[in-house]
Amino acid sequence: MNLTFLGTGTSFGVPVIGCECTVCSSDDVRDRRLRHALLVEREGRRLLVDTPPELRLQLVRAGVQDVEAVFLSHPHADHVHGIDDLRIFSLRARQPLPLYVAGEYEDELTQRFAYIWDRRRAEAEWAPVPQLTLHTFEDREALEVCGSRIIPIAFPHGGYGSYGFRMDDLAVIIDGKSVPEDAFPLFEGVRVLVINALWFGNPHPSHFNVEEAIETARRLQVPRTYLTHLSHKVDHETLESRLPQGVRAAYDGLTIEI
Questions:
Q1: Which long-range contacts (CB under 8 A, 24 or more apart) does 185-190 make?
Q2: What percentage of the chain's residues is helix, strand, coil (to nearest 5)?
Q3: What confidence tens digit (pLDDT) does each residue in 105-139 have?
Q4: Cα torsion at 14, 61, 43, 51 (round to 10°)?
């Protein structure tokens, strides 16, 4: 199984509009961070995680020609506002693309992007909108997606909830602030953890900072951890130099084998 980090930035992305800080002005390509998205590939089957505003650019850069399904963590703009870019996949396959989202966010998603689910489009065969089959799930309800068993897990995200998942040896925590104690057993045997981490110090109310992410990985006893959802307050080289063994900083375009 391979995992590609399509985007590793926060909701602002890096560089931030109008910012001239050292990270936003950096020549290191690893400091250029589009909004969050992941691509999980196993035996030729591809699962896309989130649809950020730059999704088309991310997929073109990674040479992705098809995906089999999409998992949405939560409907914040930086995670879903590239949803229209999914239409090429349903158009090319001539069949709807499965889209998985927590049941609590079904109404919000379908109302915000009502044109996708507008019944009037059914009158026009293969209208120029994404053809999506919506599948809803509940916290910790096992799913069969792309031939793999996935367990969605809800993580506190301020006043919101964000869903990561366990998939074989991989666990993903997207936009989380903590791991519920009763969810710890779900991480047993995980070999690779992907976890959000904004910056060093200065705790955030809805995201891990770097120190909290490292401590969470230690408590979960995961041998390999990759930090993502990184802000412009930390550059890649400095971050890497300060991380303990087994913890790495992800960057856009990084592909790892699990």
A1: 186/140, 186/151, 186/153, 187/220, 187/221, 187/222, 190/166, 190/220, 190/222
A2: 25, 30, 45
A3: 999 999 999 999 987 765 566 668 899 999 999 99
A4: 50
- Provide the CB-side half-sphere exposure for 29 (13 A, CA): 3
Q: How does 139-171 read in b/e, with b if 16+ C-beta sit within 10 Å? A: bbeebebbebebbbbbbbbeeebbbbbbbbebb
CA atoms within 13 A on the CB side of 47: 22
Closest to 210 in 3D by CA, of 239, 181, 232 = 239
Would you call the peptide bond into 15 cis, given omega within 30 degrees of 0 as the criterion?
A: yes
| Predicted TM-score of the model (pTM) | 0.96
**Interval 185-196: pLDDT, tens:** 999 999 999 999
Cβ contacts of 236 within 8 Å, gap of 6 or more: 28, 30, 31, 249, 251
Amino acid letter for position 228: T
What string of H, E and C letters represents the secondary structure of 48-111? EECCCCCHHHHHHHHCCCCCCEEECCCCCHHHHCCHHHHHHHHHHHCCCEEEEEEHHHHHHHHH
Local structure of 1: helix, strand or coil: coil
